[in-house]
Amino acid sequence: MSEPPHQTLRVSRRTGPGIVLGRAPWLSRRTRERVPLATAGQPIDSRGVHGDAPGTVLNQKYELLERAGSGGMAVVWRARTLGAAGFTRPVAIKRVIPHLGRDPEFIAMFVEEARVVSTLQHPLITQIHDFAVDAQGLHFLVMEWVEGVDLARLAESFRADGGVLPWPLAAAIGVEILGALGAAHDRTTEAGAHAPIFHRDVTPQNILLSTDGFVKLTDFGIARAMDRATMTSPNALKGKVSYIAPERLKNGAASVQSDLWGVAVCLWEALAGRPLFDAPTDMEVMFAVSEARVPDLRELRPDVPELLWEALKMALDVDPQERFGSTHMMGRVLRELLRSTDEPTDARRVARAVRSAQQRLAPDLAAGGPRTEVLEGLEELPDA
Questions:
Q1: What is the pLDDT of residue 250?
Q2: Quick one: pLDDT at residue 48?
Q3: DSSP string of 330-368?
Q4: What DSSP character marks residue 222?
Q5: Is 167 within 8 Å of 338 (Cβ atoms)?
Q6: Mean pLDDT, residues 76-102
Q7: How is 251-266 classified by DSSP, letter by letter?
Q8: Fold for the domain defined by 43-144
């Protein structure tokens, strides 16, 4: 039997030890480097930094079809496998950018974490199908391709019609994301030892919603490699600071509670239709996160149930010990809320919302391609 939701909200407990994939070295990094990126809405060049173009075939097996996005660590392509008798299968190819691909420490981290994350076999987590090296000696991941939109795009599509993301739909998506994280946090080794994996990068862009109505959490655990990337390219942290829990900004270890922080920020923003911590520079965002001053969601969305707001507040507490003790506890609260509404939140409802989002955003995507924001560079950060 589920615990009463109000009691669940008042429970917090410490988490046990586990595998923490990485630390937070950017807090002691000093950089004045400026990294210009494409302006919002500007088409991304179809050729990649590797000289790739649509039609490029990697290792005589993977054909690149369309560049899907890029970041400070990798370029992602929509691609397909090429098999015997005309067999094909849609996949995503994540190509490590060349200067990182030649960094031995980065590659060692990338390889190890890809190996560990490949053990996460769960329907709510995007799967790693292959890990390979191309003719240039550069590594790439072959991952499950999810046809659909991410959470940020879904929320944007509702706003494009002058509406808002319905809270039951947001809560249902939250339940699935918590399920994905729970599977990783509960991970055990073949010997039966508890060996949790913490995501450390729960952002709206990593919450994928498919046209079939499935929710998938992606970019799981590629963490130490990303930390290494921030040492040479500030772009690796672009847009991610808001989702980093306050204790991690103070060089604290990743934990169940730091992942819950990311989930709560994503849900708050999807419901509010605005950034939770909005400031001109990443440094100012860090200060805002460290204080964890969270505006009252119900002042922006009076239709949101008080219990949902209380759950998000608890997950956004500046003290990790005051957050939920597990993803399962927060998930129980959201499921209890969903039982109180008649609005459908099953896979068919998610699928309809995703297909509608694709239609609403189609002109924007056709005109501008995948969108990135201008990064004027991180300010010099103080030593930890």
A1: 87
A2: 55
A3: HHHHHHHHHTT--S--SHHHHHHHHHHHHHHHHHHHHHH
A4: -
A5: no
A6: 93
A7: TPPP-HHHHHHHHHHH
A8: Phosphorylase Kinase; domain 1 (3.30.200)
201 is catalytic: yes
Mean residue pLDDT of the chain comes to 81
Please provide residue 96's backbone torsions phi and psi, each rounded to the nearest 5 degrees: -65, 135
Q: How far apart are CA 141 and CA 218, in angstroms?
A: 13
- Count CB-CB contacts under 10 A for residue 303: 9
Instruction: Residue count of the chain, please give it.
Output: 384
How far apart are alpha carbons 138 and 238 in whole angstroms? 23
pTM over 0.70: yes
108 pLDDT band, cuts 50/70/90, is confident
CA 30 – CA 143 distance, rounded (Å) = 34
Tell me the domain boundaries of the chain.
5-21+147-368, 43-144
Question: Is residue 154 within 8 Å of 191, Cβ to Cβ?
Answer: no
With cut-offs at 50, 70 and 90, classify the pLDDT of residue 47. low
CA distance 329 to 334: 9
CA–CA gap between residue 298 and residue 237 (Å, rounded): 30
Structure tokens at 340: 């109180």
The dotted CATH code for 5-21+147-368 is 1.10.510.10
Residue 373's SS3 state is coil
Angle at which helix 167-185 crosses helix 347-368, to 10 degrees, equals 100
Report the C-alpha gap between 58 and 94 in whole angstroms: 12
Q: What value does the mean pLDDT take over residues 204-210?
A: 96
Catalytic residue among 150, 201, 282, 317: 201
Where would I find the beta strands (DSSP E) of 246-344?
A: none
Q: Name the more confident of 7 and 100.
A: 100
The two tokens of residue 76 are 């992602």
pLDDT for residue 247: 95
